[in-house]
Each structure stands twice: as structure tokens, then as C-alpha cells.
Amino acid sequence: MYKGIYVAMTGAMLRSQELDNVTQNMANANTTGYKRTSFSSRLYPLLEGITDKQNAAYPNAKAMAYFGQSSIDTTDGTVQLTENPLDLACRGDGFFAVQGVGNNIYYTRNGSFSRSKDGLLVDGSGEVVLDTANKPIRIQGSAIQVTADGTIYADGNNSGKIKLVKLDPSTVQHLGNSLFSGTEAGVSGGRILEGAIEMSNVNPINEMVGIISALREFEVAQKVITNFDTLAEKTVTEIAKV
Amino acid sequence: MIRSLFTAASGMQAQQLMVDVISNNIANVNTIGYKAGRAEFQDLLYQQLRSPGAPSETGMQVPSGIQVGLGVKPVAVQKLFSQGDFINTGNPLDLVIEGDGFFQLSRPDGTTAYTKAGTFSLDKNGNIVDPDGYPLEPPITIPTDATTITVAFNGDINILVAGQTAPSLVGSITLARFINPAGLQSVGKNLFLATDASGEPITGAPDALGFGDISQGFLENSNVNIVQELANLITAQRAFDMNSKAVQASDQMLQTTAAMKA
Questions:
Q1: For B77, which DSSP code?
Q2: Interface test mutation site (partner A, options B60, B238, B242, B260, max chain A beta carbons within 10 A)
Q3: Cα torsion for B17, A20, A76, B237, to the nearest 10°?
Q4: What would the mean pLDDT of B28-42 be, rounded to a whole number?
Q5: What does pTM read for this prediction?
Q6: With contacts defined as CB-CB under 8 Å, which chain B residues touch A207?
Q7: Are A19 and B250 within 8 A, CB to CB?
Q8: Cα-Cα-Cα-Cα dihedral sign, residues A6, A8, A9, A10
Q9: Does A216 lie at the interface with B, CB-CB under 8 angstroms?
Q10: Do A176 and B45 touch (CB under 8 A)?
Q11: A217 burial level (CB within 10 Å; 0-12, 13-18, 19+)
């Protein structure tokens, strides 16, 4: 029947996905090291969907559909000072590398670290933070100091250097639990700030505008669908009178 | 669309928890030996609607996919063990640890509790006890005829008995420290308990390697930074507001959808 009603439908579905996305950002407004995802969409022609017969009947019409994509905005978040020596904030393009169960390596920007009972440097969920040789870092001693390049000194002794990696931006993906996956693309030029944590980079103004635009565009799409409905109704009732 | 409703709800719960933690910090701003807590959050799992790298409808590879996150979860309320401000009281049994270490107290059930609050006094038998009556571990008893009590920087307690001029040693305070103090369990009454995460206590004399000195006549106030707490309170409350707006928007979308079919 009317192709437009399906185009409007894909639009409405995408707007609701966009709201999901904005909501996720707002729910994580106070999550340490969270990176906001931005959502974009555009109209794509669906070339395969049209048969020769349809093409002959509607030469100017193209079947269209909205497609969305989300991308992770890895810009720095605001820094909050905590005075806790193992709270590390990363500035610049680096990610901390952590190793979880099964020796899988993940990446994180949540530098709220502590020491396990064995003295290993671990993140909030207990994953081990890796050094530049992909080994766990054992810290013995009480006075801990971390320099900007990630070298840890405990009671003045060098205990290792935290690995900071650059990730290929197109491969970065959220895994949940403050972790990311991605392909390593060399050593990062980022710096480490001791006694501070990186807040999320969610900007409330962006997100509020996101809510409004998602909601209104959703309503517009719904309006288009109802208009097609009215059109169909008229076709059935009015034209049949003649 | 129902997704965003529940995502926003998880956001509201998380901000609520943050307000709870901040309120507890503010309520304990003048509690001796209190250590501020901080609510820690992580993002929840993600729903993969379209994988990056998958071929698109035109046969090209899509550079980034669609991942929709499902909210936020609290992971920890982390205690910050930075030093609080010192208050001069002049009371001989008010003690402060300048640096790392906890006082050890034996609880009635035989377990050992750890505290930073050095407000001690004597019970009727002359034992040094905390305000709840828990004695120091190892116990130290002050004879009833003691006129002055002196606590040295290394924890040695000397007394002067009436009629004598030379002080005599009655005991030494032993401190405990933990490799991961953030893993200690708070049980109220300014007390902490050792857990599997904190590791076993490492005991030692004050002033020994890794331990702080003891100062007599001082108390350690809470390490709550009230300005920071108020700033965090504003952030948490506003984030709560915004999440509630997302709930409203989701509701409105559902309403529009329901109104489509007259």
C-alpha cells in the first residue's frame, strides 16, 4: 500500500532508540569514567526492496528507511579530586588495560583502583590492572605515589608502570561494568592524575535537547502514520461513493 | 521504548543511592574517626542491535553499530581513608594516629574491631576502653594510684604514681594496618571489621615502618569535605531530576503510540 507509512514507522522506531540512548547517558551521568554514546540516523534508499514492476508503477518513488548508528564519544570527562592515592584519572586518549577472568584484556577509564589483599592493583570489580609488559602490578608499602606517566612508587621504590593504551576509535565498544573492548593502536600520550577520578563526559544540556528532539520527532512520525491511515480510510469510503 | 523507561528508573535509583551516601557523610561531618564514603557506579550491560563491521544493505561495511545500554548499577560505596583534621582537646586519653594504622579493640564476642577514633577513657578497673566500653587490644590497665598518664609517639604508656618522681611503663599500644583498607567492613560505632577483601591485619608498634605516630591530647575529626559533598549533592539531585524527565518522555511516547489508533 503506502510505502511512506513504513518509512515513518522506521523513523519512529529509531527515535525511540535514540531516547533509549539518551536515557542511558543520563542514567550514567554520575558513573566514573563513563563515555557518552551519541546516536545519529539518516535516510537510506532500500534499493533491493523494489521490483521492476513497482519501479515502473512509481518511477519517482524510492523505498526509504531510517538507519541509526551509535558512536562513543571518548572526550575527557570532568575531573573530581578525591585525595585517595589510588584514584587515577586519565587525561587525553589513553585507556587503562585490565585483565579479568579467562585472561581477557579489557579497557577502562574508571581509575577508581585499590589494592587486593595480595597487594595487586585492581579496579572496582576486582580485575587486575596491567603494567606496560601486560603483567599485574604488585604494590608493597604504604606511601604510594603515582607520576603523570603512570610509574608507581611505594615507599620510594619503583613498583611498575601502568599501561595506558590508545584504542582505534572505530573499534571501541561499551561492554558494561565500566569496561570497553577495542583494538589497541599503540601507546597513548595521555597523562595520569593522581588522587582524582574522571567523571562521566555526559553533558546534561545535550541530553535534555536529545530527549526533546527524540520525543517530538517521534510524535511527528506518528502523525505521518495517522495521516496515511486517514488517507487509506478516505480512499475506501469517499472514492467508493462515486 | 519500554527500555528507556527502565534505564531511567535505574538512573533514578543510582542517584538516590548517591544522595543517601552523601547524606550519611554530611550527618557524620563531626564524628570523630569517621571516614567519608563515595558511591561508585558502573554502566549496565549493552544490547547489541547492530554490530559494527557487519555488511550494510548496500554491501558496504558499517563503521559503527547500534549499542543500547540498559542503565547503571551501583558497585561499591568506597571509603576514603585520607587523614581527617586534628582537634586539640588536651585530654590525656584522646589519641590520634598521624598516618597509617588503626587502634585495635576487642569486642565482647572475642573478635577484634579496628577504629580511627581515639576517644579513650578508663573503666572502673582502670582498663583503657573506647566510649562503648570495648577494651584496647592488647589490654592496658592503669593503676588506680596513677596521677598522670603520658602516651609517647611510639605508643608507650607511662604513668606517674603519687609520691614518686620516676615514670613507670604500664604497656604499649599496638596498631594494625591493612593492605586494602577500602575492603574493611563498617559496622557503625566508628568500628571497622577485617574482611577477606581487606586482607589480614598487619600489626606493629606506632612509628614502626608503615605505621603512623601517636599524638596525645588530639582527636582525628571526620575527613568529610563539606564543600565537595554539597557539590556532589547538587550533581546527584540534578541527575535525578533529568532521569525523571526521561521517564516522562518515555511515558509520553507510549501515550502518543496508544493514541495513534482512534
A1: E
A2: B242
A3: -30
A4: 93
A5: 0.81
A6: 242
A7: yes
A8: positive
A9: no
A10: yes
A11: middle
User: Using the beta-carbon criterion (under 8 Å), do A114 and B245 form an inter-chain contact?
Assistant: no
Please answer yes or no on whether B243 and A124 come within 8 Å at the CB atom. no
Beta strand A157-161 with A179-181 is unpaired
CA distance B90 to chain A (A): 29
Q: Note the pLDDT of residue B139.
A: 93
Q: What is the pLDDT of residues B124-151, one digit of tens each?
A: 999 999 999 999 989 999 998 888 999 9
Per the prediction, chain A carries an average pLDDT of: 86
Looking at chain A from residue 118 to 137, which residues have their Cβ under 8 Å from any Cβ of chain B? 118-119, 124-125
Partners of residue B42 in chain A, C-beta under 8 Å: 31, 110, 124-125, 176-178
Cβ of A125 and B75 within 8 Å? Answer: yes
Give the residue from A86, A80, A28, A48 showing the smallest Cα distance to A197.
A80
Q: Do B50 and A112 touch (CB under 8 A)?
A: no
**Mutation to test the A interface, candidates B64, B184, B227, B241, most A Cβ within 10 Å:** B64
Convert B113-123 to b/e letters by CB count within 10 Å (16 or more is b): bbbbbbbbebe
Angle, CA B208 vertex, CA B202 and CA B213 arms, to 5°: 105
Closest C-alpha among B180, B191, B6, B260 to residue A118: B180
DSSP output for A203-223: -HHHHHHHHHHHHHHHHHHHH
Q: What is the largest CA-CA distance in chain B?
A: 101
- Judge residue B54's burial from the number of C-beta atoms within 10 Å of its C-beta, 0-12 exposed, 13-18 middle, 19 or more buried: exposed
Residue identified by cell 599503540 is: A186
Q: How far is A180 from chain B (nearest CA, A)?
A: 11
Indicate the residue type of B191: L
The ipTM assigned to this model is: 0.75
pLDDT of A129: 95
pLDDT of residue A63: 58
Among A228, A115, A125, A131, which Cα is nearest to A187's? A131
Instruction: Give the angle subtended at the CA of A33 by the CAs of A21 and A100, to the nearest 5°.
Output: 100
| Contacts with B230 from chain A: Cβ below 8 Å | none
More confident of the two residues B205 and B56: B205
Distance CA B226, CA B37 (A): 12
